[in-house]
Amino acid sequence: MLTLQLAVFAVCPFVLALTTHAFAPASSIVSSRTTNTPIRQRTVPSKLHESKDANMTNEEREIAMEKALKAMTAFSNKYTENTGTFYCSDKSIPAVVIKGLAEHKVTLGAPLCPCRFYEDKEKEAKEGYWNCPCVPMRERHECHCMLFLTEDNDFVGEETVG
């Protein structure tokens, strides 16, 4: 299993970053070392959060994330059924990728592939090439994230629905 995770992290570096906080609830807090003031566990000050979710409260953002996560899970399940693709045998891989897609759905308004680096995420989301399912997936069944695998892939699982 370690070999599979290392292979995915080599191909998909964003998965490594997501796994750190992937299953932490959005409302998770930790104490600051210098003060005893609670701080958000995952604060990402960026241009992204100033656009789509800047005016959301933590509670609204958490609700939006739950809704987006359900939507992206339903989309992924339906897509595997419709295309004859499968999830990875290590279920943590699709879980982390789907969470990344949901995060981008909330912050960008589109399910931009979470496994790539972008100079300008908003621009990429508007262009649509890397919005899930991305053009390489639609045209050649090549999923960079290892979310949708063809049955000839070494890491394919037995299920089409997660």
In short:
The chain has 162 residues and is mostly helical.
What Rg is obtained from the alpha carbons, in whole angstroms? 16 Å
Unreliably modeled segments: 6-11, 13-49
Would you list the SSEs in sequence order as H and E? HHEEHHHHH
Q: Assign an overall shape.
A: globular
Name the structural class: mainly alpha
Strand order of the largest sheet: 1-2
Mean pLDDT: 77
Number of strands: 2
Distance between the termini: 18 Å
Describe this structure as you would to a colleague.
By secondary structure, this protein is mostly helical. It contains seven helices and two strands; from the N terminus they run ααββααααα. α4 (58-83) crosses α5. The longest helix has 26 residues, at 58-83. Residues 6-11 and 13-49 have low confidence and may be disordered.
Topology, pairings included?
Elements: H1 2-11, H2 13-21, E1 29-31, E2 38-40, H3 47-51, H4 58-83, H5 92-108, H6 121-127, H7 135-140
Antiparallel strand pairs: 1-2
Helix pairs in contact: 1-2, 4-5
What are its keywords?
mainly alpha; two-stranded antiparallel sheet; globular; 7 helices; 162 residues
